[in-house]
Amino acid sequence: MSDTRSPRSEFGAFLKARRAELTPAQVGLADDGTVRRVPGLRRDEVARLATMSTDYYTRIEQGRVRASATVLASLVKALRLDDAQRAYLYELAGRAPTARRRRPAQRVRPSVQRMLDALGHLPAMVLGRYNDILAWNAAAAALYQDFALLKPAERNYTRLIFLDPTMRSLFTDWEDAGRISAATLRMETAATPDDPRLATLVGELSVRSPEFRQWWNGRIVSDTTSGPKRYRHALVGPLTLDCDTWTSPGDPDITFMVLTAEPGSPQDHALRILSSWHTAPAPTPTSDPSHD
C-alpha cells in the first residue's frame, strides 16, 4: 500500500491515470462509436495526439523505453497537463534535478520561531518534508489544535487532515482540503520514491483512509501555493482566511504557511478573539519527526 514502485513504472501509471481522465471530445478527436473497455483515451489516440506510433507510445507507457525531452513535451501537450503535472512527469522521467538520497534532519532555528510568534493573532506554521509540522505559533494552535500535545511523528498536516476528527470537522470543504493535501504530497514522491518516511506515511494513510487511498491512486498532483481556506470553528464559527505559502530560500523542503484576513474585517476580529482565548505557551522549535 505504500507505493514503492520505481519511477519508471510510476511514469507509466501516471500516463494511464491522465489519459483515463480525458475524452475524445476534450482533445478534439471524433468518437468512433466503438464501446470502450476502459474510460478515457486509448493508447492509439494518445499516440496520434503526440505524433508518434502506437507501438512506441505503448513501450513508453510500459517502461520499456525512456522518453526524450521532445517526447515528454509532446505528451504534456497531448494529455493537457497543467504545470504541476508537467513538473511531476519530468521528475519521474529523470529530466529534473533529483534529491539527495540521504538528507539531513530538518531543524527550525529559534529566529524562525520568533518570526512566527511576531505574527501575533495570524496563524502561521512551518512545514517540512511531506507536510511535517516543524513549528507553529500560538494563533495556529488556537485555530487547529495544540500540536505540542501530539507525538512528533503525529505532527503531519496531511496525516491530521485525514485521520484526526478535530481537523476533519474544522474544514468547511474537507474533501477539497484532503485532495489538495494528497496532491501536494504526491508531488514529493517523484524526487524521493524510496524514502522510508514517505513510505510509512503513505502506507498508514492508505490503510486507514479510503478517501486518501482513492485520491492517491488517482495520481492527482498539485503545487498550489495560495488561495482561500474555509473553516467552521467551534468557538468563533465560520472563517474564510487567505492562505499564502513561501518556500525557504535556504531549504526548498521547508515551507512557511500564513493565514490572514482583511484588517478590521469580521474574519480578522474572529482571529483576534480566538488568539486571545488561547493561552498555551509558544512551542519549542522541533526537528524532522522521522529523526525523533
UniProtKB/TrEMBL annotation:
Domain HTH cro/C1-type positions: 40-86
One Pfam family hit: HTH_31
GO terms for MF: DNA binding
InterPro entries, sorted: Cro/C1-type_HTH, Lambda_DNA-bd_dom_sf, MLTR_LBD
Protein name in UniProt: Helix-turn-helix domain-containing protein
